[in-house]
Amino acid sequence: MKHIYNDGGRANAGYRGKPGDCVVRAIAIATGLPYQTVYNQINLTAKRERPRCGQIRSNSRTGVHKRTCKRYLESLGWHWVPTMGIGTGCQVHLREDELPAGCLIVSLSRHITAVIDGVIHDTFNPDRGGTRCVYGYFAAPANPQTR
Q1: What pLDDT shows up at residue 33?
Q2: Model pLDDT, residue 20
Q3: What would the 3-class secondary structure string for the chain be?
Q4: pLDDT at residue 145 in the model
Q5: Is 74 left (phi over 0), alpha (psi -120 to 50) or beta?
Q6: Which segments in the chain show pLDDT lower than 70?
Q7: Position 34 in a domain
Q8: What is the pLDDT of residue 144?
């Protein structure tokens, strides 16, 4: 899959180093919202949640739980489309011909990336030569308020 380097505005917001902020980057890229706005909103969303059985609370810089990501994106009007179920095996791979056109936030194993019209927008190419399994993706709202 074609890849374009895009940090979602992270460097312009003044952040450095190697964080676990793929959720913030992907959302900033796909929605067009400023990186710092998404960063702050994810942390506010996480503060409203109660951590489960010994889990650490979601954090924009060190990692965001799936439920926090889902809650925030649904508040923006995005909807979840699962591509894999328990026991079904991998049905969809991170390949242009297996994903729909448009703006997507794609969930992979231990990573989330933005895919816009079949092109990966991220700080690296996570497709593993077209073999990376897609668990599902968030699709943009029909009448997006952002982007």
Answers
A1: 97
A2: 83
A3: CEEEECCCCCCCCCCCCCCCCHHHHHHHHHHCCCHHHHHHHHHHHHHCCCCCCCCCCCECCCECCHHHHHHHHHHCCCEEEECCCCCCCCCCECCHHHCCCCEEEEEECCEEEEEECCEEEECCCCCHHHCCECCEEEECCCCCCCC
A4: 53
A5: alpha
A6: 143-147
A7: yes
A8: 54
Q: Are 114 and 29 in contact (CB under 8 A)?
A: yes
Counting the structural domains of the chain, the total is 1
Tell me the residue range of the domain where 62 lies. Answer: 2-139
Q: Is residue 145 part of a domain?
A: no
Strand partners, 105: 114, 138
Task: With respect to residue 40, please indicate whether it lies within any of the assigned structural domains.
Answer: yes
pLDDT at position 133 is 95
Residue 33, CB-side half-sphere exposure with 13 Å CA sphere: 21
pLDDT of residue 49: 84
